[in-house]
Amino acid sequence: MGYTIHVDGKLLFSTESEDISQIVLNPKLELDTNGAGSLSFVIPPSHEMHGSIKRLKSIITVEQNGDELFRGRMVDSESDSFNQESVTCEGEKSFLLDSLYEAGTFNGNAKDLFRS
Q1: Residue 61 and residue 101: Cα distance in Å, rounded?
Q2: What letter would DSSP give residue 9?
Q3: Which residue has the higher pLDDT, 92 or 103?
C-alpha cells in the first residue's frame, strides 16, 4: 500500500521512494467523513520543495495506490531552529469558508447554485 503526497501536481513524498531527498517527517492524515479533514507534515531543509508551498494557493493531495484520499491547501507553516518547515493543511470542504453568497432566494439545484 503506497502513499504519495503531491503539491500542485508535483511529487512531494512517496512511501515507495528510496530517495532520501524527497522525505517528509511525521506525516499525519486525519480524514473526516462529515468535515474537511487535515494533513500535517514536516519538510526538512534538504528537500527540493522546502519553502515552495504557497499558503491558501497550493493544492495538496494524498493518494493511496492511485486513489485520492485527501485534497486541500496549506493554511499554516512554521520553521524551527533547524529550518524544518512544519506544514498544516485543511481539506477542500474548508474552501467554502472563503465563499460569500448574498442572502436571497434561489430556485434550482445545488449544482446551479455554485455555478453562478
Answers
A1: 27
A2: T
A3: 92
Q: How far apart are CA 102 and CA 94, in angstroms?
A: 19
What span, in angstroms and rounded, lies between the C-alpha atoms of 57 and 19?
A: 27
Contact present, 70 and 62 (Cβ < 8 Å): yes
Separation of alpha carbons 36 and 47, rounded Å: 27
Q: The dihedral of CA 67, 94, 59, 101: what is its sign?
A: positive
CA separation for the pair 12, 90 (Å, rounded): 17
* CA 62-112-95 angle, 5° bins: 35
Tell me the per-residue pLDDT of 7-23, one tens digit each, with 9 for 90 and over: 999 999 999 988 888 89
What is the C-alpha to C-alpha distance for residues 78 and 53, in angstroms, rounded to an integer? 12
